[in-house]
From TrEMBL:
Residues covered by the Sugar 3,4-ketoisomerase QdtA cupin domain: 5-131
Domain of life assignment: Bacteria
InterPro entries: QdtA_cupin_dom, RmlC-like_jellyroll, RmlC_Cupin_sf
A Pfam family: FdtA
Name listed for the protein in its UniProt record: WblP protein
Species of the source: Pseudoalteromonas tunicata D2
Length: 133
């Protein structure tokens, strides 16, 4: 599986503007249990810095942009997330970091599970041990 998997959503736009529809087990490749969004991020703040044992997510910048780093323990890649039509699929056991949030950025995340702190790995050395074992 490649590290960066974009999910391109076709806009149902017309002369009035754009419309995006997300459906579980359709253009979102899992059952949706939770949606959250990150906004009003202060300049210079970076977020994330964790992996999940089981959770799968798709993230979109529905306004503005940010840089997304994904790391599977062997490779690390940085991509720009800058469109409401372009999601990034974050698989379980992928370390993620978000940097360089633009002013007005709204990062919306679609998640496969309810919030569960015990699913997080927040220590990078622990992540490397678990992903490489
Ligand atoms: P965190 O996952 O650390 O955010 P980020 O990865 O963007 O840096 O979450 C920040 C806080 O919000 C933390 O105390 C956990 C809490 N939280 C919830 O209660 N529910 C949620 O769905 C999420 C994503 C976070």
């Amino acid at each position: 599986m490649s590290l960066i998997n974009f999910i391109d959503i076709k806009s149902l736009g017309d002369s009035r503007g754009d419309l995006i529809s997300l459906e579980e087990n359709g253009n979102i490749p899992f059952s949706i249990k939770r949606v959250y969004y990150i906004f009003n991020t202060e300049q210079g703040v970076a977020r994330g810095f964790h992996a999940h044992k089981a959770l799968r997510q798709v993230a979109f910048c529905i306004a503005g942009q940010c840089e997304f780093i994904l790391d599977d323990g062997k490779n690390r890649q940085t991509v720009l997330l800058d469109s409401p039509t372009k999601g990034i699929l974050i698989e379980h056991m992928q370390w993620r970091e978000m940097h360089n949030f633009s002013e007005g950025c709204i990062l919306m995340v679609i998640a496969s599970e309810h919030y569960d702190e015990s699913d997080y790995i927040r220590d990078y050395e622990q992540f490397l041990r678990e992903v490489n074992q």
